[in-house]
Amino acid sequence: MKFLTIDTSTNLLLIVLHDEKNIIEINSRVGKSDHQAYIVPMIEETLKKNQVELEALSGVIVGIGPGSYTGLRVGLMTAKMLCYAKKIPLYTVSSLMLLTSGYDEKILAWHDARNNDGFSGFYEKGILIDEEKVRNLDNLTEEEKLMMVYVNPDSFKLNIERVVKNKIHVENYMGLVPNYLRKTEAEVKLDHKSK
User: Is pLDDT at 82 greater than 90 in this prediction?
Assistant: First the structure.
């Protein structure tokens, strides 16, 4: 069984070809709001280099967030299109879990959400032990701050067995939306204007 895992929740565009236990190839690129220009060519390059046909995949696993609003939409839309066109299964995983799945100790996975906030979740060995939510840095205890792992290109650590174990099959993937955890700034401003 081979899977293609995609994550676009941060400035890291991550494409991973793997089986249930081992990584076959990691193709990654650090970008700045330009994942849409590179995601399909990187997928094609990864599959071609490893002589794997898209139709032969057992599924596509996509990081569903939380993270960058635009980035999440790029990854999710690409995964949906591939699965729909080739009639292969679609799975989701938390982007926080995916990018920190290789840490064994208890951590607070943290992705900057601006204004001293972070999309975050407490994990241990890839298992969520407290809900993912937006937390404010000022409200964290010193112990929690010491557990923080900033989700970025320099700190991501994968354990592909944990990713595969945590994947969730999506039946109706056309209705699937990213896990934003909160409204966008534009939505908040619109809400204030309508009051």
Answer: yes
Task: Give burial (CB, 10 Å; 0-12/13-18/19+) of 144.
Answer: middle
Domain for residue 96, yes or no?
yes
| CATH at residue 172 | 3.30.420.40
Q: Does residue 193 or residue 35 have the better pLDDT? A: 35
- Confirm if 11 and 2 have CB atoms less than 8 A apart: no
DSSP 179: -
End-to-end CA distance of the chain: 53
Decide: residue 45, CB within 10 A, 0-12 exposed, 13-18 middle, 19+ buried: middle
Q: Which domain holds residue 20?
A: 3-101+156-193
